[in-house]
Design goal:
The structure is a single chain. The chain is mainly alpha-helical and 360 residues long. Helix 5 runs antiparallel to helix 14, helix 6 crosses helix 11 and helix 7 crosses helix 11.
Amino acid sequence: MMLQYILRRLFAAIPVLFGILLVTFALARMIPGDPCRAMLGEKATKATCDRFIREKGLDKPISEQFAIYMKDIARGDFGNSMRFNQPVTRLLVERLPTTVELSFSALLVSMLVGIPLGVLSAVRYNSWVDVLTMVWANIGVSMPVFWLGLMLAFVFSLLLKDTFLWLPPSGRVSAGMDTTAFYDAWNLTLPDTGVLRSMAEFIGRLNILNAFLTGNWELLRDAIRHLILPSIALGTIPMALIARMTRSSMLEVLGQDYVRTARAKGVRYNKVIMKHAFRNALLPIITVLGLSLGTLLGGAVLTETIFGLSGVGRILYESITARDYAIVQGFTVVIAVFFVVLNLLVDISYAYIDPRIRLN
């Protein structure tokens, strides 16, 4: 039954992915401006621009360009960047790990703080704890990421620089830190190119995961210290949203008859809250978690800029201004695919938590 449910969700995702490819391709071509002028400067001659457009295949009909694009995507080829003169896949392998690591760290911070606060606020409904939590949630949703990031860097990197609370204001690891990838540490032989090589390099650039695989605990500590400030800055808004959703969902469940019955039968209060109420309140919370992670992956540009992180956000913004279609399309499609996969995982988790969904 579960396998059939997963297969149905996978087939339903196929037209969504095709629509994403189509819309991304179309929107990239609708960006105002001339890609030749954006790449070569305003003084580029007409002959130079004609040669540039012809070399990049931009003189072909849109339908033909899209057909070529789809054929390349089917082979895992996102094309070459006009700006960097490198394959987009190579840039993805270099930049995406930074954004993935930052996004998952920010989501972890949001969950560890937001969910307990939401549960506590619902259990202590209308108390001072509830009021303070909701005030904090409203402040967190309204707080600009760029301002919070600058304030965190100012406090923990400047004001507290001579204390044990000092935290690095920028970068992923300290200069001179050993970041040897796991495949080099294990003396693995990998092909020079191909999917296997790209996947291995992608994992090797995830500093925290790579530190676990290689047993490099010094790198692990240093990478975590560098992630604390950007994770808090990026995770504040989803943290507040998760707390509010958890509170709302818990309040709805705590008013149900089966919760009152369990308490009337003498079941311990903590067991009623965590086993009966919290599990049945998980569905909307999981939805917010999935959407928050997808949003974090696509919206980390300000955080990456403030903390000097070379991730997807910065290069995507720069490529949009430079009309670098290949990067815009490739990075946008990858982020969109993350969204689809996350929604698929959320749907599967629904079926696991509530078996009635599988039957429907």
